[in-house]
Amino acid sequence: MINPNVVEGQIAGGTVQGIGGALLENLAYDPDGNPLASTFVDYLLPTTTEVPTIEYGHLETPAPGPGGYKGVGEGGAIGSAPAVVNTVADALAPFGVKITSLPASPATIVSLLEKARRSSAAPTP
Question: What is the pTM of this model?
């Protein structure tokens, strides 16, 4: 690694982006196509409160080109969203909840739990 701080920054940024997409971020529009969120008060982004401590493990393998250099990208974004959503889905499965859309925001989870409770309390025909 030429600069470990840059590498870890890329990983952290991608991981937080995936967490935000899984749990918070929702670009909603009204029927005329206007965005409903005009500020970050309305459009939720993850902060240090919602993000766990990220631990890094590096495995360096040189690229075949001159110097062996290659980019890092934001690979954290690829795995973090499905990992978070699958964790939430596993936790809610005993309650009969299935997540079918994102984000799995706190309000969405409460709504899904209430819906599952109502359907389990309904008399069977």
Answer: 0.81
